[in-house]
Design goal:
By secondary structure, the protein is mainly beta. The chain has a domain at 32-47 and 54-72 and 87-93 and 460-520. The strands form nine sheets. The protein has a six-stranded antiparallel sheet with strand order 5-4-24-25-26-27, with no helix packed on it. A five-stranded antiparallel sheet has the order 38-37-36-1-40. The chain is globular.
Length: 522
């Protein structure tokens, strides 16, 4: 099934959405019956960059997950997702494979963009045009040239994140917290690919010099209450095997932090020391483009197998067939690049044919969601799309390979971005693509499946009450009595909630790292 060609179920969802909107605006009962309410007083603890994990998960009498809530922690190539975004999902009673799509106006950032989010705002980034960034304005439905708060520019691997009530940013060789410098630029070389977790700031440091060049990975103790600037000489440091090693993603498992370099070096920091799980080898391809906390493990999206690997302590292991391969495409040079959790399921994007896969853990089954491109027709006669055309223009053969570069839950949607192999400048001489085909590269697509809601919490230092409410026509997230977000939802299976069993602190987003009290379930 092609993602860009709606099925009858998709058309039904669109029609139903319009009908429900009309009903609610012109005479609908806004006091619809409440079917279920999950609530808990949570204390996330001091924000030190940790993964917060799952608040609850509810299963019906058959053991099928029907609802859940928690905080996703995903790092997809270049950028980390907003950890303060809370997801609440409800599985519909029937036709839970239905989805609808909408292609947003093209960001006009050439052939590729990567996504990041902060404060429920979606941003698209490209390395072209001096690392351009544009923010999606959902009201005017257009892209605006706007950087996130407290940064003057972003390279790949830079970023900005909410930390408690404040903002931690990494940009142009330095770091700031609420505008206050905490890491000065190096006296030689450059700092890049930052990550903050468990009260430590991690980053790579490279000096390219024939006689004394190096690449180091630093782990620096730091919390927002610290005064002054980080002294890098006090860092716990790993010297990498090759100069110029760089990561595409970071992740954490329990109290460990993992990074994988583009030369295949797999490194973990346990809070006091670095350990090499797999030695770098520049004669073998081994890259990881995404990391995501999923139930009791950390998942890693790998090239060239196109599969996910898992880390549960001690070693990283390949999961054969996760995800499968779309019939009709080559088995070679596959790259699981992007991961997300949406509507309680795991989503994975795979290069070079931009395949989108969804994993239903209860059924132990992968579902193909089609491709994020309508062209060209798939083939196993070549590894990548448009190889002949790339060679004709003197480009790298896989130049026009098709990537899914970002998947971010936002409101009721999953926002998905695409790219060619790199974020290249578009040239009009590439006349083998029509304009609509060209604009499928560097595009952003909004996908909706009924039953998911994502909203940013208001940070509280201490306990805060979170409520997840299901009514006959809508679901909502509330914090301390205030509604954060809501979305319409029909076809709720009331019986599944009455017979459900709720497990607290565990679920698809991983184990909850804070404290829970006063839990109430239907």
């Amino acid at each position: 099934m092609n993602l860009l060609r709606p099925t009858n179920s998709v058309m039904f969802l669109r029609t139903l959405s319009v009908v429900l909107c009309f009903f609610c605006l012109f005479g609908g009962d806004v006091q619809a019956e409440e079917l279920a309410r999950f609530s808990a007083v949570v204390d996330l603890g001091p924000d030190r960059g940790q993964s917060f994990g799952s608040i609850f998960e509810a299963r019906d009498s058959n053991g099928r997950v029907v609802a859940g809530a928690g905080f996703m922690d995903a790092y997809n190539t270049r950028f980390r997702g907003d950890r303060h975004t809370l997801q609440f999902f409800i599985r519909p009673a029937a036709d839970d494979n239905a989805f609808a799509i909408k292609r947003l106006p093209h960001p006009d950032l050439d052939t590729g963009v990567y996504l990041f989010d902060i404060d429920e705002k979606l941003h698209a980034w490209t390395s072209v045009r001096n690392n351009s960034v544009r923010r999606w304005d959902a009201v005017s439905e257009r892209w605006v040239g706007e950087l996130p708060p407290e940064v003057s520019g972003l390279r790949g691997g830079d970023g900005v994140m909410r930390l408690g009530k404040g903002t931690l940013s990494f940009s142009q060789n330095k770091a700031t917290c609420n505008g206050r410098p905490i890491l000065a630029p190096p006296t030689e070389g450059r700092y890049y690919c930052f990550y903050y977790a468990h009260g430590r700031l991690f980053f790579y440091h490279t000096l390219r010099d024939d006689s004394r060049g190096f690449t180091k990975i630093h782990a620096c103790d730091w919390t927002p209450s610290d005064q002054g600037v980080i002294d890098v000489s006090q860092a716990v440091t790993l010297d990498t095997k090759y100069i110029g090693e760089t990561p595409f993603a970071w992740g954490q498992f329990k109290h460990e932090v993992l990074t994988v370099s583009n030369q295949g070096g797999v490194y973990t920091f346990d809070g006091s020391t670095w350990k090499t799980l797999l030695e770098a080898d520049n004669t073998v391809s081994y890259q990881v483009y995404s990391m995501l906390n999923f139930h009791d493990r950390l998942l890693l999206a790998q090239y060239p197998t196109g599969n996910l690997f898992e880390y549960g302590g001690e070693k990283v292991t390949r999961i054969e067939g996760w995800p499968p391969r779309l019939p009709g495409v080559s088995k070679n040079a596959r790259e699981a690049q992007t991961m997300s959790i949406y509507r309680g399921d795991l989503f994975v994007g795979v290069w070079p044919w931009a395949e989108l896969w969804r994993y239903d853990r209860d059924a132990e089954r992968w579902h193909s969601m089609g491709r994020m491109f309508t062209h060209p027709e798939i083939t196993d006669k070549r590894t990548h799309p448009y190889e002949d055309e790339a060679n004709e223009y003197g480009l790298v053969t896989n130049h026009w390979g098709q990537r899914i570069t970002g998947m971010i839950p936002l409101g009721d949607s999953l926002m998905i971005s695409t790219s060619s192999k790199g974020t290249y400048e578009w040239k009009d001489k590439y006349d083998f693509l029509t304009d609509p085909q060209r604009r499928e590269y560097g595009a952003v697509v909004q996908m909706r499946m009924p039953g998911n809601l994502a909203a940013q919490i208001q940070w509280k230092d201490g306990p805060t009450k979170l409520e997840f409410v299901v009514k006959a026509d809508r679901v909502s997230i509330r914090q301390d009595g205030k509604e954060l977000a809501a979305t319409m939802l029909s076809d709720v299976d009331v019986a599944s909630f009455h017979d459900s069993k709720t497990t607290w602190r565990e679920g698809v987003f991983g184990k909850f790292s804070g404290k829970l009290a006063s839990q109430i379930a239907p």
